[in-house]
Amino acid sequence: MMRWLYSGFTWLAQPLLRRKIARRGLKEPGYLDAVDERFGHYALPPLPADGQTIWVHAVSLGETRAAAVLLARLREALPQMRLLLTHGTATGRAEGKQLLRAGDVQAWLPWDTPGAVQRFLAHFRPRIGILMETEVWPNLVAACARAEVPLVLANARLSEKSMRQAQRLAWLSRPAYRRLTAVWAQTQDDAARFATLGAPVQGVFGNLKFDAMPNAGQLAQGHAWRAQLGRPVVMFASSREGEEAEFLQVLKSFQPSGPVESAPVAPDLIANQVRAVQWLIVPRHPQRFNEVAALIESQGFAVSRRSAWGAQAAAAQPSTVWLGDSLGEMALYYGLSDAALLGGSFAPLGGQNLIEAAACACPVLMGPHTFNFSEAAELAQAAGAASRHASLREAVVAACGLVTDGARRTDMAVAARRFAQAHRGATEQTVAAILGLLG
Q: What is the pTM assigned to this prediction?
């Protein structure tokens, strides 16, 4: 009965969703592609019910990159498989296009009304559904159960905050989690939280992202550029809205006219160290590239954009902030950087994933807010691959100290690589579990 109330709400909310998509499309045109797919209407022909369609849902960019690792191994195990890849965001869909092969299909995940999800399943006829990390929708789960489509949550993570939110809507969330076929959690803590919600946790496999290998060509290019520069590079990696403004204010305070006396110790030395570093900002969301470029200039800094560099890094100039405004080049940026500040962790946003930085042997300085990746952050800190700081200002000062201490920076880089290597293996366990469900 309660799910029917929820279904009525989602049905009534469809005009609001269309309006929201139209607004998002003004900044990200990708949201305007195939809008009717969101409501279960497809221009694509129906797929045959031949048992070869493996459906993977990766809501956004991070989940799509995790799915790439899994899909490569699944294709080896199931050479005849046809991939149905669904997303919820434009960045995820753009990234997902690179994972498609001949015969594969890409679509939006349908809005969670009974009609839309039933049309989705009838049209694509998947043999199994693999939800990456977090996405569980009540009507989708119920429809898969009725259609006898196994639905699993892979690389599953659930923060304390998300669990509390789900508990407040236990009348809706608990039946959805209970009806999943399996949950394969990243950590023991994630498993315990899922179990609290009644989910069928069947394994703790670790994080698929540890199995992703950095792009070797990009990493080598970044290393080559770093060797050519006459100053260290520190990146603000996957920065989020609000963090860049605070970060630029911190840098500005160390400029000759800034209040450097507010630094905790040796203000002149620290100010000189800050000004000696080449700072690089790589925003998390590509639609904000122009906004961040304007913000850099509004704070009195010149901006040099990666999109204008071509095959060479820009010359390192005082008072110039680099902007990483390209997609799919994080390995290049980590290779170029002597250290990285972890975006999303200096505002209460839960942090971004530091695993790619570790795989690239880039030391990480993170803020106090890493609840979305709490265990990975704690393990990285314990391994000596990352350090935690109470504020952006503290992290900026610490980064300057790190990149001017060659031995300590090398130790952290070695620890980062070892940390990444030590936690691999989730892909093999996940593929074995999927094959087990497929019989």
A: 0.88
